[in-house]
Give the backbone structure.
Amino acid sequence: MFTIGNKKIGKNQPVFIIAEAGINHNGDLNIAKKLIKEASKCGADAVKFQTIITDELFSEKLNPELYKLVDKWVLSKKDHLILIDYAKKNNIQFFSTPMGEKTTKLLVSLRMPVIKIASGDLDYHQFLKSVAKTKTPMIISTGMSKISEIASAVDIVKNENCQFALLHCNSSYPTPVEDANLSSIPYLQNMFNVPVGYSDHTDGIDVCVAAVAIGANILEKHFTLDKEMEGPDQKLSADPKEFSELVKKTRLIEKALGKPRTGITKSEQKFVKKMRKSIGASVNIPANRKITKSMLTAFRPGNGISPTMIDYLVGLRPRKSIYKGTQLSWDLF
């Protein structure tokens, strides 16, 4: 069983809901703490950040402007420790996405319950292998990938005997609804026999809700305090009101999915006799007349002889006349 902290992930388990804070803190520790607190209040199971050492993401020589921008989003080891402690106080799990091997070492030293691999690193095999060797459970996003590339990544992680889950994902920002392709979720579950979730980049929460209904084990949605804040991910993120609604609908769908029917539910029991039918006479039947099927019908309530027994009545003879519309009972024969 794949676990994140004390949470079991997979079939017949509650959907593990991740508030993807990412870089929406804009490098401000106080905003990061507010994101954690609000995510917890919304009912998220975990809040996820991105752990950045700028050199692992961009070359200052090739992308000086992006390098300078990303450098503003860096959280120090001390910041991480503060946020981990703050998450514990707010009863929510904290984890992060590393950008390379240096940030992986930092997160492992901080004893992350799980490490998230971004879609952009799915084909970075050396990196996948080094993370898997730490034996820290992994969540691997699969945006921008071919099924053969997903299979290669899965093989690398399996060979290191590391627990993992996959996230179906489309890496366009925002994702057009017609490109969400949620049918990939059961497809990946069947192909790789591991928990599969959904990382969402669509506008709103409707596609996330549909992912839960189709069987996602994990749900990740970008999270912000305010869509109008500065930053590239703010506008497509869910604010606290939206995220609370997402959690609420997810838990409602879980209840509705329930389990395969094996019997009458408790809520149905009081309706069985009222709504089912019993065998009755469709015509007047004289005493001692041999019963034929054309003499019989079924109508409510269902407190008499079940329609499943109609063939057992055929050929019997009533001891006295039976009037049309009479509910039949065995003592009449």
Observations:
- The mean pLDDT is 96.
- The two ends are 60 Å apart (CA to CA).
- Residues 240-257 form the longest helix (18 residues).
- DSSP finds eleven helices and twelve strands in the chain.
